[in-house]
Amino acid sequence: MNNRNTYLFSHCLFRTATMANCKASQTALLFIVIVAFLKPCEPQNCAEQDLAALQDFKAAITEDPTGALQSWVGENCCEWNGILCNESNGRVISIAPDADPGNASVFMRGTISKSIGKLSFLQKFILFGWKHIRGRIPFSVRKLKTLTHFTLDNNKISGLIPASIGGLLQLKSLSLSNNLIAGHIPRSICNLRNLRTLYLDGNRLRGLIPHCIGDLKELAVLQLKRNMISGSIPDSIGGLENVSTLDISQNFLTGSVPSSVGNLSRLSEFVVSKNLLNGSIPSSLGFLRYSLSKLSLDRNLLTGEIPESFENLTTMNYLDLSHNGLTGNIPRFSKSSSLTYLILSNNLLSGMLPQFLGSLPSLRVVQLSFNNFTGLIPEFDRSAKFDSVVLSNNKLTGGVPDLFAELVYLEHLDLSNNELNAGVPQNPALYNLVSLNLSRNSLSGPLPNFTSIGLNSLDLSYNNLIFGSIPVWITDSSFLINLRLAGCGISISLNDWEPAAPKLYMSIDLSNNSITGDAGRLFKNMTKLKSLNFARNQLSGSIPLSIENLKSLEDLDLSYNELNGTIPEEMAQLKNLRRLNLSYNHLCGQIPDEKPLNSFPVSSFDHNDCLCGHPLPSCQSTERKNISSRYQNIHPHG
Length: 638
Fold this sequence. Notes:
By secondary structure, the protein is α/β, with parallel strands linked by helices. About 10% of the residues lie in helices and about 20% in strands. Among the domains are: about 5-40; about 465-638, Ribonuclease Inhibitor (Leucine-rich repeat, LRR (right-handed beta-alpha superhelix), Alpha-Beta Horseshoe). It has a 22-stranded mixed β-sheet, with no helix packed on it. A 4-stranded mixed β-sheet has the order 1-4-6-8. Helix 1 (about 5-20) runs antiparallel to helix 2 (about 25-40). It starts with a helix and ends with a helix.
């Protein structure tokens, strides 16, 4: 028994019991009669025209493996799953069959019947997450004058947004996200003055954002991301006085960010990343000091400096201006006590890193890589709670600050590709460190023992660190996945190296060292390895047959070693191999004529002793050449 029937049944019992005792009071009897008139004991059946329309809707669904419409039988559609009726007249006011969008096995296949337009009392039509509802939005939708919520997210709806949708003046929510809808955003959509949420993201919409968009004064959420919308952001967008979320990222928008955005006093999230916007960032964005919490202008063509007015953004939590052409210094964010993410990488910013970054109480992620910052890395405040610090590819000098050794919350530290030339702090307490990259600097001195249990990525390549052997704490690491120690003065035999968890490794780079031996024993266990670089070492012997165990391998570089023998046929089992370099060894014999080996260029095999076969000259011509050479050596005068 559904909730509505339970209520009516209970009400009938109550009314019957009351009538049994009503002789003492005529007033009570009158009350019972009135209630009985207003609340009939039997539930109201749905209207005949609504029943017919829903039956047509069900008939247009060709597959319903989860049984969402299984209950759609009989004549009382008000009891069907996902159907809600008006209790007074039995007319259908809501269609919302249950779905589980995160479950790939939950789907419904078919189209939306045009008969939907006959449900003249319909207020909510929600087909969210059924994945395989196809076809166009029926033009008959224009008849649904009482519709307030229209949701078709996460399906395969195609065609255009009908211009007649602008006639649904009661509409409060229009959500068509993640479909295949094409064409332009119809100008008539600006007639929907009651609209509060508009989700058109994840489609194939083209053309311009309508200039009348600012007429939607009640709009709180506007989502247009992941389309192919072009043109400029209309200045009228500053008229969306109630908007809190504005996301028009991942389109082809050009022109500048309109200063009118600074008028949106309730704007909390402004996301326009991955477009073609140019010009400077309007200083008016700094007026949103009490509302703006997320600002993403990344991956555009913006120039100029970061406005000083940004110092006033006291509620800012997430700021991403990366991948632009911004210049100048980082403005003071000392008032931004809520700032958690500061992402300014891949710009042309310069100057010294500001000291105040370490005193921002909420700051967790600092990404300033690929800029022109100079000078020393500041000794940040001891109270700093950084999770991630990425300062790579700048011109920073000095050493790694001693305070970094005390950042107990730090998980990711990347100082690579700078000009650091001092030492590394000893006895670090980086217990939560997951990835560490100090490569391509001039760091020297003893390397401390990084005792983080969860360290899975380590790159110390190309410094002035001379290890001799691979440090024990690295070899004994149980969670290491990516290891890069290129050019670290390592002089070991691979026969003696026994990492604690070889099955976890996905990437190893030990190139440019003095490593000897062969890797046959290692290859037996490194089944997840995707990238292996042992180039420019002193490996000898033949390529181990156990290399066939590296089924996941995509990148292999064994160049500039002392390898001999033939290329084993087993290497043809490496079906995922995308890059191969065996050059500058002493290999001989035929290159196996199988994919992927026969798909690599000459540079993958050249400068060996006597390799032959595609892509090198054929083995027959090579043999004739060798015979001729030997004959010339025996009979030098012919």
